[in-house]
Amino acid sequence: MINKLDILLKQPQKIYHTDDLRILWGITKPSTLHQTISRLIKKGVLIKIHKGLYCTIPISDLDPVELGFRLINRFCYLTTETVLAQNGIINQSPNKITFVSNISQKITVGDNTFLYRQLSDKYLYNSDGISPQSNGVLIASVARAKSDMLYFQPSYYFDKKI
User: Fold this and answer.
1) 51 and 98 together in one domain
2) 98 part of a folded domain
C-alpha cells in the first residue's frame, strides 16, 4: 500500500479516473483496485469527486476548468459562453462552465456546474481553433467559441464584435 501511495503522491496530476489509477498502480484485478481506492479514501489520501473520479487535494483547491475537462472522461473542450466571457465578447458572466463533447450533460460538483453540449462529430473533432493548455485542457479560440455558440444558437447576441 505504501508503494501505491508513494507512486500516487509523486504524480503532478491531481485528478484521476479509476482507469488512471489502475494503470498507474499496475492493478489488473477490479476487486483489488476498488479495495485499494476505498482504503485510500478512508485514509483521506483520495477524495471522491464523482463516480469513478478522484483527487488528491481538496475539491475546492482544484482548477474548475480542469475538473470540468476531466469529469466526463471523453473528448471535450472549453468553449461558448465561458471562453466568450473570459475574452470580453459577452458581458454577462455565465453561471456554468461550458464545454462541447459528443454528449449533452449537466453536472454539478461542489460550487461548480458544468454544461456539456453535444456537437456533431464533423465539427467536434476538427482541431482548428482548439489549443491545449499546459494541464492538458483543450480550449477554443474566441473565433471557434463564437462559431460553436452560433451552431447552438444561430441568433445569439454578442456584446462585442470579433
Assistant:
1) no
2) yes
